[in-house]
């Protein structure tokens, strides 16, 4: 039987002694120091006076609660840890810590409010980050555990929070899509009710005061644990109640854990203290009997993973910190995939886009070891056959990585490759280093618009999960074609050197300058060269700032900035996470090769329905009969 072991190891040609390699490596140290400092800043949980008060009350800090909840040695993949970075009036991370870790062996989305940052209240960044977290756990079918202690909406940002959060704040945003139905709160819109059908389990552990919007979070969870004498859950605290109705009550009798466990029924378990509450949350998880829908190694085997044969540290010498300097994407790929085994697709055609298949964090090597063992001692039994089957259930991935600008051939190749991966139910992994599609008369005549549109359509219609890594430039339609944020990859991470915008700051400024000059010429205006230069420079700086990776990550346009050397582990974990749902490609079209353009209606106005023939398609958008070309401009009226 053919296996991944038959795929040959790719041979690296990198010279680690070369001056380029050494210079790159040195430059990366600065970038990584900055990343390290910023991530460290993101782990800060507030001012010392708030930390002291919190600890004096006998409470655990948010990150300690997470650590206790997760399995020993569990990884914790934080999602958008630098959300809010550099933004005025925002807490770094949005007063929450959120990520994916293992609870009783189950991949779980854990979301903890940070009560020592603005009382754990949710600001605008919390909402944006919460929306992304909510999307990730829904798409990947991840059970969620919330560790709550929150002052609800940040009142100084009520306008920016209230309207985005719908019924409540961040925590409710996370839970509302799927937990409604188990309880009877709120007047939620149909998307929420539809999501609830996904049946993703949620648990809230309330450690302290959870007011107003924060109260709806436990209210809408499947299961609620409250800490005795600490948790307080109410729509309005004692002062607000007194103001509204004149009723005088203390916080404990109004919304204490004991009251909710005995009278209101909002709480399902009364925990003696924080440790007991976390233990109860783990107990809840262990009773879920949660199963992934994708392949998992048999429980009695501890999977072992074949590392790349090349050191991942070498990524820092191969990739330039300066995105203008090219590098060979294959050299990156073979430092990320298992055993540096990579099976390229069409290596001689459209070489500016590397495509091919590999495994990341597959577990076959262990099983291969067992095969040898059984072959020797038991010879050919049914046990061997069983292991052979498991062998094939590793996690394959189809990789697309940019070497340089995209031409028609690259677009054709990518379209076919994406179709093949859909037919074989193989997730996609994109590595961006792309300034866009080639422009110019010759390329327009060649039909690069048509080829590019096919590529983008294939990405838009692809139904297998995609994971995207931005490892350099990510500009314009190149970003879209390579499954940038707008094309909804399941996960998207950036390297600290990366830049992302409609085009590079210099090009964008140059284009704007030309347009402005042409407009001035048409109206007979005289151009003030000094003013133009100042305007251009100002504009260039704005674009440069907006394309910077910390600017985009701050706005949750990626799921985090990662050290290139961690890429393999991050991708491996994401691949494992996507397999919580069944991975199934869409059989939307046959293999289109170079001329075929057969697509299901998609997100773009120039997507047409599949009828299987090249002639006589009917545009879904216009209902007009169209010919071979999928560009709407070329429809013959
Ligand atoms: N919006 C904005 N800031 C808030 C806030 C909120 N909802 N809740 C707390 N904060 C701020 C406080 O002003 C304080 O700011 P400071 O750093 O300048 O001192 C800081 O967070 C800590 O609050 P504090 O009251 O000292 O902490 P605490 O642990 O004793 O109490 C709460 C925390 C959440 C119980 C309490 O602050 C509270 O009741 N907040 C109001 C909750 C509310 O009514 N929310 C309505 C949401 S719709």
UniProtKB/TrEMBL annotation:
Root EC class: ligase
Domain CoA carboxyltransferase C-terminal: 304-585
Domain CoA carboxyltransferase N-terminal: 27-300
Pathway: Amino-acid degradation; L-leucine degradation; (S)-3-hydroxy-3-methylglutaryl-CoA from 3-isovaleryl-CoA: step 2/3
Catalytic activity: 3-methylbut-2-enoyl-CoA + hydrogencarbonate + ATP = 3-methyl-(2E)-glutaconyl-CoA + ADP + phosphate + H(+)
UniProt EC number: 6.4.1.4
Transmembrane segments: none
Gene3D superfamilies: 2-enoyl-CoA Hydratase, Chain A, domain 1 (3.90.226.10)
GO biological process: L-leucine catabolic process
Record-linked InterPro entries: AcCoA_carboxyl_beta, ClpP/crotonase-like_dom_sf, COA_CT_C, COA_CT_N, MCCB/AccD1-like
One example GO MF annotation: methylcrotonoyl-CoA carboxylase activity
SUPFAM superfamilies in alphabetical order: ClpP/crotonase
Protein name: methylcrotonoyl-CoA carboxylase
Species this chain originates from: Jimgerdemannia flammicorona
């Amino acid at each position: 039987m053919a296996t991944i072991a038959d795929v040959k190891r790719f041979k690296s040609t990198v010279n680690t002694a070369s001056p380029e390699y050494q210079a790159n490596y040195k430059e990366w140290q600065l970038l990584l120091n900055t990343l390290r400092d910023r991530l460290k800043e993101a782990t800060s949980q507030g001012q010392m006076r708030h930390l002291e008060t919190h600890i004096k009350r006998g409470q655990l800090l948010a990150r300690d609660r997470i650590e206790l909840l997760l399995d020993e040695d569990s990884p914790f993949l934080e999602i958008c840890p630098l959300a809010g970075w550099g933004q005025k009036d925002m807490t770094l991370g949005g007063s929450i810590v959120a990520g994916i870790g293992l609870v009783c062996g189950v991949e779980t989305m854990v979301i903890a409010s940070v009560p020592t940052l603005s009382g754990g209240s949710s600001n605008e960044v919390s909402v944006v980050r919460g929306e992304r977290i909510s999307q990730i756990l829904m798409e990947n079918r991840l059970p969620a555990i919330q560790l709550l202690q929150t002052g609800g909406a940040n009142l100084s940002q009520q306008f920016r929070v209230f309207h985005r959060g719908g019924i409540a704040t961040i925590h409710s945003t996370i839970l509302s899509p799927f937990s409604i139905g188990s309880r009877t709160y709120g007047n939620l819109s149909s998307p929420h009710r539809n999501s609830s059908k996904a049946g993703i389990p949620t648990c809230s552990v309330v450690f302290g005061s959870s007011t107003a919007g924060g109260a709806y979070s436990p209210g809408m969870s499947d299961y609620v644990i409250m800490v005795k004498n600490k948790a307080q859950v109410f729509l309005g605290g004692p002062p607000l109640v007194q103001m509204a109705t004149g009723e005088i009550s203390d916080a404990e009798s109004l919304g204490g854990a004991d009251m909710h466990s005995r009278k209101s029924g909002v709480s399902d378990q009364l925990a003696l203290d924080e440790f007991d509450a976390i233990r109860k949350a783990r107990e809840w998880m262990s009773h879920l009997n949660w199963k992934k829908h994708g392949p998992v190694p048999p429980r009695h085997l501890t999977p072992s993973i074949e590392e790349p044969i090349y050191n991942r540290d070498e990524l820092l010498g191969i990739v330039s910190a300066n995105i203008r300097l090219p590098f060979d994407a294959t050299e990156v790929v073979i430092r990320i995939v298992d055993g540096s085994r990579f099976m390229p697709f069409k290596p001689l055609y459209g070489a500016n886009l590397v495509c091919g298949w590999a495994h990341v964090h597959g577990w076959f090597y262990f099983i291969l070891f067992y095969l040898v063992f059984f072959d020797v001692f038991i010879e050919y039994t049914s046990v061997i056959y069983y292991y052979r089957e498991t062998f094939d259930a590793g996690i394959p991935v189809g990789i697309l990585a940019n070497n340089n600008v995209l031409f028609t051939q690259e677009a054709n190749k990518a379209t076919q490759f994406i179709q093949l991966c859909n037919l074989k139910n193989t997730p996609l992994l994109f590595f961006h280093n792309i300034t866009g599609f080639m422009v110019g008369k010759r390329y327009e005549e060649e039909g690069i618009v048509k080829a590019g549109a096919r590529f983008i359509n294939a990405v838009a219609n692809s139904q297998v999960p995609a994971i995207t890594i931005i490892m350099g430039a990510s500009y314009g339609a190149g970003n879209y074609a390579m499954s940038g944020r707008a094309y909804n990859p399941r996960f998207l991470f950036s390297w600290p050197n990366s830049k992302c915008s409609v085009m590079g700051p210099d090009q964008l400024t140059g284009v704007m300058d030309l347009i402005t000059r042409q407009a001035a010429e048409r109206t007979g205006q005289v151009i003030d060269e000094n003013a133009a230069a100042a305007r251009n420079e100002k504009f260039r700086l704005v674009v440069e700032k907006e394309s910077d990776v910390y600017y985009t990550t701050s706005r949750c346009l990626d799921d985090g900035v990662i050290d290139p050397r961690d890429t393999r582990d991050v991708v491996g974990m994401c691949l494992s996470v996507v397999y919580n749902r069944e991975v199934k490609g869409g059989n939307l079209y046959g293999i289109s090769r170079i001329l075929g353009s057969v697509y299901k209606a998609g997100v773009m106005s120039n997507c047409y329905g599949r009828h299987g023939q090249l002639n006589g398609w009917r545009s879904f958008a216009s209902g007009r009969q169209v010919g071979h070309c999928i560009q709407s401009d070329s429809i013959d009226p």
